[in-house]
Amino acid sequence: MPSSAHSSSSSAQATWQDKLDEACREYQIAAPIFQIVSDRRGGRTAWSSRVTVHGSVHSARFWYDGKNLANAKEDAAEVALTWLTGSNPSSPSTTKGGW
């Protein structure tokens, strides 16, 4: 039914930052702390992000144009959440119950 498709798409709207915040609350650890970093490359500046979770620093995988800083934070949040939960959501073969 179309209504079930709409309800699942609304849950897909949660950002990686939201999911990371929720996981930190669930594990009863301090909220993640984000830091924006930059790197001068020729005549332009590339931007990225790092996030500290439970004493561990996780960097975004990519560098972004300044107008895409939100993507840099999302990237870092995804990396940190994957580390925190011990799973790799983009690779189904590495899920916890896979053995």
Features:
99 residues, alpha+beta, 3-stranded antiparallel sheet, 3 helices, 3 strands, disordered C terminus, DRBM domain-containing protein
Structure write-up:
This protein is an alpha+beta fold. It has a domain at 36-88. The chain has helices at residues 2-11, 16-26, 69-85; strands spanning 33-41, 44-53, 56-59. Strand 1 and strand 2 (44-53) form a beta hairpin. It is elongated and about 45 Å long. Mean pLDDT is 84; it is low at 1-10 and 91-99. This is DRBM domain-containing protein.
Fold topology:
Blueprint: H1 2-11, H2 16-26, E1 33-41, E2 44-53, E3 56-59, H3 69-85
Antiparallel strand pairs: 1-2, 2-3
Helix pairs in contact: 2-3
How far apart are the termini? 33 Å
Order of helices and strands: HHEEEH
* Strand order within the widest beta sheet: 1-2-3
Q: What is the subunit organization of this protein?
A: single chain
Structural class: alpha+beta
Biggest sheet layout: 3 strands, antiparallel
Q: In what range is the share of β-strand residues?
A: 15-25%
Uncertain segments of ≥5 residues (pLDDT<50)?
A: 1-10, 91-99
Approximate shape: elongated
Helix fraction? 25-40%
Number of strands: 3
- The radius of gyration computed from the alpha-carbon positions, rounded to a whole number of angstroms, is 16 Å
Count of helical regions: 3
Average pLDDT for all residues: 84
Protein name: DRBM domain-containing protein
